Amino acid sequence: PRPILLTRHGESRDNVRGRIGGDAVLSEAGELYAKKLANFVEKRLKSERTASIWTSTLQRTILTASPIVGFPKIQWRALEEINAGVCDGMTYEEIKKNMPEEYVSRKKDKLRYRYPRGESYLDVIQRLEPVIIELERQRAPVVVISHQAVLRALYAYFADRPLKEIPDIEVPLHTIIEIQMGVTGVQEKRYKLMD
Ligand code: G3H
Q: Can you tell me which atom of ligand 1 is nearest the CA of 149?
């Protein structure tokens, strides 16, 4: 068995302000998480020479990975957060107020709803296919540092959760989800590193 560790980036300054999308840096709490994560990964994968760290191309995941030393890091555009299109940078309150029809359509069918000039969950799931193929092919452990919508989809794939649940799966900040792929199936552990 070899572990796949899934985690969101540490809290970003946009998370603090409730803004979606963007390319913000980490908050103080987010920076602390990055250090704790590095500690955890170095201990957990100490004996694993070939492990690698995968991030998106956005600052908040790259900064979350930055305290981890001794493992190769790979950036994937496919690991970027769902593209909120015209709503990028807004809060949910602002969307509700300024674009009420969009807000309602998304609420009705979050899986299929596509942000104007952005993506739907189904789009995200589709663009993750090469990442999943590569994750399946790897023999060594992988630490995936990505974003909420993306991790919902990746988690659902490994935990065998139905498509329709994906947009509502809980993937909390500052928590590592460890997936073990063994011959007998998939096992899961969660490590909450901060409150
Ligand atoms: O910025 C996007 C969020 O991480 C995704 O959350 O799909 O529940 O709005 P949501």
A: 5
pTM: 0.96
Ligand 1: residue of 82, 99, 112, 125 to mutate (most ligand atoms within 8 A of CB) is 82
The answer to whether residue 8 is catalytic is yes
Render pLDDT for 170-191 as a digit per residue (tens, 0 to 9). Answer: 999 999 999 997 788 889 999 9
In single-letter form, the type of residue at position 51 comes to A
Look up residue 99 and give its two tokens.
């674009």
Question: Three-class SS of residue 30?
Answer: helix
Q: Catalytic residue, from 11, 19, 60, 178: name it.
A: 60
Summarised one tens digit per residue, pLDDT across range 77-114 is 999 999 999 999 999 999 999 999 999 999 999 999 99
Helix (H, G, I), strand (E, B) or coil at 182: strand
Tokens 């908050």 belong to which residue? 27
Nearest 5°: phi and psi at 30?
A: -65, -40
> Looking at this predicted complex, what is its ipTM?
0.91
User: Which single residue is written with the structure tokens 């995200």?
Assistant: 124
Distances (CA, A) of 27 to 7, 10, 89, 91, 99: 16, 8, 17, 17, 29
Report how far residue 22's alpha carbon sits from residue 58's, in angstroms, rounded to the nearest whole number: 9
Residue from 127, 147, 152, 174 carrying the catalytic annotation: 147
